[in-house]
Automatic annotation (TrEMBL):
InterPro entries: Glutathione-S-Trfase_C-like (IPR010987), Glutathione-S-Trfase_C_sf (IPR036282), Glutathione_S-Trfase (IPR040079), Glutathione_S-Trfase_N (IPR004045), GST_C (IPR004046), Thioredoxin-like_sf (IPR036249). This is Glutathione S-transferase. GO terms for molecular function: transferase activity. Keywords: Transferase. Residues 88-208 form the GST C-terminal domain.
Amino acid sequence: MKLYMHAAACSLSPHIVCRELGLDIELVEVDRKTHRTSSGDDYLAINGNGYVPALMLDDGRILTEGPAIVQFLAECTPEGERLLPKAGTYARSQVQSYLNFITAELHKPMAMLFNAAYEGAHPGIHELVSKRLDWLNGRFAGAYLTGNDFTIADAYLFVCLNWSPWIKIDLSRWPALHGFMARVGARPKVRQALQEEDLEAFEADGIFFAPHSYIASAGRSGTPVRP
Ligand SMILES: N[C@@H](CCC(=O)N[C@@H](CS)C(=O)NCC(=O)O)C(=O)O
């Protein structure tokens, strides 16, 4: 399978899921401006919306939308039950509920904070995201969102919260979320995915990871450290 991605974008979530499950995947980087893939293909022919992630199955079929992709990946292997409980259980619906919350209530508004076109609305969006993080901070049922098992929803949450420094969200206001980032970022397979996307941390005990060029744009000083 091929995973179309940008470094540190939401496509890092399915990338992490693949590594956690030992799934064989080829990463194909997409140029944000030209919509050309690293192999020169027109990405708009793969996903007409132009955004990542997209998954190309071995038979050429395409699946888009991150929350659907991570569920599909978890169902590709019996191992997937570790990250996505059995269908028909409350535990499964709880993971799906978090996926929906993250995509609608965090991912989208956070993405708008990167976009200068919405600059006038940024203070209001900041307030909204803060309210959602207040709620989420009190929801942890253990080390991870739904308990002590890492799920596909945790992978997605990690990726969205990892954008905090660039959109001026100080995650230290939310201790449970801050601790969660450190915990997920220390998982060996997560570190593997971060390395494969060539991301760096701001400092030795850093919990946020980015491409080298982004680190300077977030106004960070110090020596970036490889995960
Ligand atoms: N609804 C989509 C949104 C994906 C999305 O926002 N992707 C961003 C990266 S995090 C992107 O590729 N943006 C570039 C663009 O829109 O051209 C999903 O959940 O997969």
